[in-house]
Design a protein that fits this description.
Blueprint: H1 3-36, E1 40-42, E2 61-63, E3 70-81, E4 90-92, E5 97-106, E6 113-115, E7 121-124, E8 128-131, E9 136-137, E10 142-144, E11 147-151, E12 156-158, E13 165-167, E14 172-176, E15 179-183, E16 185-187, E17 193-195, E18 197-199, E19 204-208, E20 211-214, E21 218-220, E22 224-228, E23 230-234, E24 238-242, E25 248-250, E26 255-258, E27 262-266, E28 276-277, E29 282-286, E30 289-292, E31 297-299, E32 303-307, E33 309-314, E34 323-325, E35 330-333, E36 338-342, E37 345-347
Parallel strand pairs: 1-2, 2-4, 3-5, 4-6, 5-7, 5-8, 7-10, 8-11, 9-12, 10-13, 11-14, 12-15, 13-18, 14-19, 15-20, 19-22, 20-23, 21-24, 22-25, 23-26, 24-27, 25-28, 26-29, 27-30, 29-32, 30-33, 31-34, 32-35, 33-36, 34-37
Antiparallel strand pairs: 16-17
């Protein structure tokens, strides 16, 4: 700054006086704070692209939807970080829907979300990853309409609040490296049976390197299920029932274990008589039970390992409908193990 300019600035400040200085300080502070933080607002149908990589109480997102009922948040494959506390940083107005897509949400929790009322919706669209930074309680119903990958990073996702994860038609939910606690079915006030994870008919659930801890029996009645890596089911005197018309598939080299006290019930989809196993995948029963429905069950590939007392049972009295363990199936009954049969188990017959 040259000398004449410094002189003019000094004269300007002297002429302001105390009151003028206070006004200018307020204006400066508001301008400075506004340039560093502020509320991001979505009102129209044009996808909102974030300009920052974090949300906070000072920099929240307000989905008002003054010009549309459905709004889109497009992260363009960025990572968005959320605060460690439970303050709401995303608000959705009454009757409005916010869809998030193409983004990784780091540390997001349902408590960061404020829905004005039951008519407001928050949906996971395509290309969304949810990265858990700590154990997480599902305190709101979460709905997937595109593709959501929950990367648990070894943390616990608790589903004990009886608020489900809903997977819509053609949508995919992947849960990786996570412990799912509080899984199971329950009956709501209207008398309807609800499930911790509920899939639409053409939806797909992929469990990968995940432990499922059942507090009550869990029924998978719709959609398809992929089991990848090491998947463990636990729960004394609990049952995992697979009765969906969609296929239940074990990926190559997958190891799916049913631990002591668990029961795995499988009802074959219409027109098929086999649980889909790869030649390298393995079913492991440790002091648990294996049941099949009225159409029977053929295991024609993969590996079957039995440890401790393992029960095989069928729900039909038809002796021609039971378990068929094909000769191509590697069956290993470990030392001190026993196979308890209630029904028919045939070995070596072709599928």
């Amino acid at each position: 700054m040259d000398r004449p300019l410094r002189l003019r600035v000094r004269l300007f400040i002297n002429n302001l006086g105390h009151e003028g200085m206070r006004v200018w300080l307020v204006v400066f502070c508001l301008f400075f704070l506004g340039s560093c933080s502020g509320v991001a607002t979505i009102d129209g149908p044009t996808p909102f692209v974030p300009t920052t990589n974090y949300f906070s109480s000072a920099s929240p997102l307000n989905a008002r939807g003054k010009k549309t009922d459905v709004m889109t948040f497009d992260g363009q494959n960025k990572k968005i970080f959320f605060p460690a506390n439970d303050v709401p940083v995303i608000m959705v107005s009454s009757g409005k829907t916010l869809i998030v897509q193409n983004v990784t949400l780091v540390g997001f929790r349902p408590t960061h979300l404020q829905l004005q009322d039951a008519a407001a919706q928050f949906l996971f669209g395509s290309g969304v990853t949810l990265s858990l930074e700590a154990d997480l309680d599902l305190t709101k119903t979460m709905t997937v309409t595109g593709s959501l990958s929950i990367q648990g990073n070894g943390n616990v996702l608790s589903l004990s609040s009886k608020l489900p994860l809903l997977v819509g038609n053609a949508a995919v939910l992947e849960i990786n490296r996570c412990t799912l606690k509080g899984m199971g079915d329950w009956v709501n006030a209207a008398g309807t049976t609800c499930s911790s994870i509920a899939c639409a008919p053409t939806a797909r659930l992929r469990l990968k390197n995940t432990t499922c801890q059942l507090d009550s029996s869990w029924s998978f009645t719709s959609g398809a299920l992929d089991l990848v890596g090491d998947v463990v089911f636990k729960g004394m005197r609990q049952k995992f029932s697979y009765t969906s018309p969609g296929l239940c598939s074990l990926a190559p080299y997958a190891v799916v274990s049913f631990m002591r006290g668990m029961t795995f019930f499988y009802q074959c989809p219409a027109g098929r008589s086999n649980l889909v196993l790869d030649a390298t995948s393995r079913l492991f029963f440790d002091g648990s039970s294996f049941m099949c429905g009225n159409s029977g069950l053929t295991l024609s590939a993969g590996q079957l390992f039995l440890k401790n007392d393992v029960s095989f049972a069928t729900t039909t009295q038809d002796k021609t409908k039971g378990f068929i363990l094909d000769a191509s199936l590697l069956t290993a009954i470990l030392s001190n193990a026993s196979m308890l049969v209630d029904g028919t188990v045939a070995y070596g017959q072709p599928a």
